[in-house]
Amino acid sequence: xxxxxxxxxxxxxxxxxxxxxxxxxxxxxxxxxxxxxxxxxxxxxxxxxxxxxxxxxxxxxxxxxxxxxxxxxxxxxxxxxxxxxxxxxxxxxxxxxxxxxxxxxxxxxxxxxxxxxxxxxxxxxxxxxxxxxxxxxxxxxxxxxxxxxxxxxxxxxxxxxxxxxxxxxxxxxxxxxxxxxxxxxxxxxxxxxxxxxxxxxxxxxxxxxxxxxxxxxxxxxxxxxxxxxxxxxxxxxxxxxxxxxxxxxxxxxxxxxxxxxxxxxxxxxxxxxxxxxxxxxxxxxxxxxxxxxxxxxxxxxxxxxxx
Length: 307
Hints:
By secondary structure, the chain is of the alpha/beta class. 44% of the residues lie in helices and 22% in strands. Helix 4 packs across helix 11 (294-306).
């Protein structure tokens, strides 16, 4: 069957169209993305501004036109931290339903972590053992760990790359004191998160999300698995080398670097700072990058229920 996954996130509104059935891996057929960076539309009272609401409605309308043209049989629409935390979130959800006909499922931070973990487990397989997952979105950072298809522990903290940029890195390029303030903030937030995890020392550490994939293309390395599949890894030392260099460059110059796309260039420094501090907090020197994340997890859960 042809499925459409509509992800209303904090940085983009992304429609992924796949051909899938229970027991098979979903095969991408089409994609449509609108870059909104919703954190810049948050007002002092915590609402999404009228301009931001209009941008969301326009992006969803455009995505639904693509979904119709692609002949999807089922739409799986969801929203994450930007709408979840907005003071006018419920009213906006109703407006989206009324104007576009789309009823968004609002995922909790724990839901995001659990579904992303499911996707990672299916991608890696059981032989990967205990997994420790880091997933940096636009609004939040999800951390999960476990040995099964769903994690034993899953938390979400407000350290997304977009949120951290808007909150701390006010200049372009950011000043050193701004980067230092973000680093100290991340350390403070992560101190509480780490306490909830039992560490075994033998975890298979995985990173997902576009931010981490971009950083891995820039500062990581690749190797070839048996069968020809590519394996990408990223080290904390690689981040320590590259994040300060990125921070000294204006945003429009970063797109000349490998992996840094126009939709991520404004928040890649904050993402790098948060990831480096997360790896430091958990004592991780290297992680492997997984191409599957939340959208694939939503698809897999749906297919499991069909089966």
